[in-house]
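Hey, can you fold this one?
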Amino acid sequence: MSNRKRRALIVTGGRLGTWALDEIDPDDILIGADRGALFLIEHGYRPDLSIGDFDSVTKHEKTLVHQNSGEFLSCDAILKDESDTELAFLHAVAMKPAEIVLLGAVGTRLDHSLANIHLLYKANTLGIACCIVDEFNIIRLTDHSLHVDVVKGFTHISLLPLTLEVSGLTLTGFQYPLHEATLIMGHSLAISNVLTGGTGHVQIRAGLLLVIQSRD
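Sure. Predicted structure:
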């Protein structure tokens, strides 16, 4: 099967749980970043690629990951310029998949969480569909338009500018519609909207907009 018809699913070392296993499809290209690779193996999956400095696992666990991965790439924890998640992301991009999905990309480390959200921008510039999924959020980014479908349980939809300003925002299919609105960073105008039907449409004219579907 061509990679252009497959997702690259990156499991990294942030907040993970059994919910993440429900996100895995049989045809996914599985990439484990650092401890995310161990998570996959401990739950019966063989990563197509395991990558990182593996400073968050024991020597025995690193050996286990090495032995149970299709490809294993270990790098020095000091002599590298990218985080483990970004390294995994760059390798996923090179595979030219239909979409990249990141699991475990948010967690207790706010710096890593924000850096991973910034990967959505990098994917957008490359024209690759990308999202971050965790137990409580589905995070995407657009610079033009986006369809938002109903996802069971994820009833809150919030729109946040990733640039100082997002202009020409028009929402259809939402309880609180907007027409040619402007969002300014630091203002909460578009927090906690809801869909009125099965799908909604987000359109912007300029800027970068985060679209976050959440549940409590």
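The CA atoms of residues 14 and 104 lie 4 Å apart. Let me know if you want another pass with a different chain boundary.
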